[in-house]
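sorry to bug you again but im stuck and you know this stuff better than me. below you get a single protein, a line of residues and a line of whole numbers that encode the local backbone shape. mainly i need to know what kind of three dimensional shape the backbone takes. anything you notice is useful, everything is just below:

***
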Amino acid sequence: MHIDGGSADASSLGAAVLPGLAAGQTPNRVCILVLGMHRSGTSAVTKSIGALGPTLPKHLFAPDENNPTGYWEPALLNDLNERLLIENGSRWDDWRAFDAGQLPPERMDYFRTQVCSRIHTEYGDAPSFVLKEPRISRFVPMYRDLLQEMGIEVRYALAHRNPYAVIGSLEKRDGLDRRMAALLWLRHELDAERSTRGGKRFFLSYEALLGDHLPVMKRLANALDLHWPDVDEELFGHLSADHQHNLGDIDIPDADPLLREWLDRAYAALRALEDNSGDERAMLELDSIRQLFDGMSSVVGDLFFSEIARRDALFRKLEDKLAIQSDALVVSSVDTDLIGDIRKSQSESLSIISDLLNDVSTLKHQLDENNELLRTVLNSGRDRDRGAMFSAVGRLFGRIRGRAVE
């Protein structure tokens, strides 16, 4: 993806963790942390919150065919979060539980420092800002603690979408297996909900936001104590049902019935939390699903991703081997072309030389004839045969004029 808003790399970012709150000090800055699964409307939610006043990040991924109205997430943190996952043996499409604390202390210190520094690079000293990066849904406690250490209060906007629509979208964009996409949806939604309990939070669905956005955004502003400006409809001009291409009408034919049950139960619980973010029955339902899901993930997930890693390594070896063979073929092709050019050049040169030799032979023949005519002229002169002399001189000049014309 192309990044808008300038460039900044790790070398240009400060190394020190930004100062936090002194004991007993009240936070004077606010971060609205947008959480939710990839392809669940988090971009639309983030832009909508930004329209209410909180600052959006400086370095953004440019819109593309997958998200024509923009992603609205900080590119610097996107890159860092992916590296955090990889160093911890995970990846963006991993549906196992993630514990950032498993990293060695020195690497954990590095990532904590970089998160704080990059937040400052993206948002400066903005009194309120909105931060969205779907990977954070899997390690909310790390970001929450760092933001609080920086003297920033964290409030949460949790976006969700019909899981079957998300599955269809991921299948189209990434070619992801529907069962994998279903498990990934569960992981993001379950972890984000669990990690935000006790905080100031608001649940909203992508479908509701597109359907009647003003009432939804007013409720969000009230729940998260955001100022509601004199709203112009144009503030939310990026919201359109035309951008919703997957409506949740797909099936997962190869999925175990238990997986479908988890999806349906979890989605129903999230819908209940839209009306009441503290709905205890809904949270107990999600806890029940999470307990079963985590148990399955700890056994099947480790085996699955270990095998995926093994196959990826094998695939990379094959790619390297093919690249070497391809380079050899390119060199061979270049050599063949060069040899062909040389041979062609040699053939042309030989043709030119042959023509020159023919010309030399012709000239030699003509020179012999001219010498013979000169001898005739001289002999005629000695013999005082003027007629023969003039005739020979005429033939000689005629040859000379003919050669000049050639």
The longest strand covers residues 152-160. The longest helix spans residues 280-382. Confidence is low (pLDDT under 50) at residues 6-23. The chain has two domains: 3-278, 355-405.
